[in-house]
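Example (one chain per record):
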Amino acid sequence: MLAVLLAGCTTQVPQALSPSLVPNGFTAPVPASAPVWPETSWWAGFGDPAMTQLVTEAQANNRDIAAAAARVMQAEAQATVQRSALFPTIDAQAQHSGNQCSGQACRQYLSGQTFGLGFNATYELDIWGLARNNLRAAQEQLKSARFAQQAVAMTVTANVASRYLEVLALRSRIAIQHQQIDAINDILQVIKLKVKAGAISRLDLVRENTQLESVQAQLPNLETQEKQALFALAVLLGRAPEDFDITGKTLDGITAPDVGPGLPSDLLLRRPDVAGGEADLAAAHANLDAARAAFLPQISLSSAGGFASTAVGALLNGSNTGLSYGADLLQTIFDGGRLAGQRDLAEGLQREALANYQSKVLNAYADVEYALTQYANTRRSEGHLHNVIAAAQEAFQISQLQYRQGAADLLNVLFAQQALFLAQDQLVQVALANREAAVHLFEALGGGWQEAPEDRTQVLVSEDHRGKKN
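Predicted structure:
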């Protein structure tokens, strides 16, 4: 009967990974000959030393990472607190008492002083595993805190890379706007000469000035976005935003490295957020086991001993010692439903943790699929836009030449100019989306992190016609 009760107090963590949750393969396009899984220093693959330096600084000084490390410290302390319940508690106590009074009878019976030195020891037998389950829950929460720290560090790294690329892209777009302004001013000089000579009306001059003002009106918004991205990058590095700057000017030369997603089943071992959900489920299950064990009788042992004497010098004599010991058994008979409510609460929390874990698994696959799709599609768009820009550049040059020679009107120049600079601006945005998709893909694949085998509590269960489980 004791063996049955003990077996019922600590049970296996519910297995949440059914075959329906884990696909056989990724459907999004995968780069050919791409290495499987990212390296732990994946950001170095972008070929930009400045990005590597910023990531290193953020990993050392970011406040979110520091807060996550503090939460790990708290979880370690909580595990220590729960571990203490497995050991006896020993207390020491020193006493001194004295009485003074003036009457003869008082002096005879009440006067004098007493010294005492005592020790108390209590130990609660963990027969049903209540303390062990509480400790197991704390240890799983510690694992979850460590995984969360890794997830925060990975997110911070990805955000640093994305904000850095965003700043460079905005600077590229600002440079394109200035190039467009210069081109408009060149045409304006031609228009002014023609108007002065009476060859054309002021209509062309008004149209080109309108175009100039329109382009100049877009610059403040881009400059504001650049500052906003720059300030966000400073905060990620743990710096004050004032006077913060980077040396990079454009996205030119920054290429996204290829990476393959590997097997979908392996992804669950490489995502710290998924591992954290796994640990949360194991902790919730340990709390449920502890709530069930609380229904059973609790047995504690206690002992007390010490020395007592009217003189300090004789305190430690063997004749002045005393010892007591005993055992207590406590069984709750009626508590108004408190224990049942705690058990139901623990069961509800376990169901929530199980659903959260499954949600993290599904989101992990969605992240990878989206990142792969975006990376492939933006790369295709980037190639087409290079062709568009080459054609638009030629059209703009021809329209300018024809306008100078009087063979075309200004509208042709305006259309060609707008097409060229719109394509250039669009190319920068698509290039940024491509690089950020690569960053997202590295983050979605876990950034090179991998869960240790001893930390796992979930396995993928698949049943074939022989009934085997893998």
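Caption: The chain has two domains: 10-86+129-295+337-455, 88-125+297-330.
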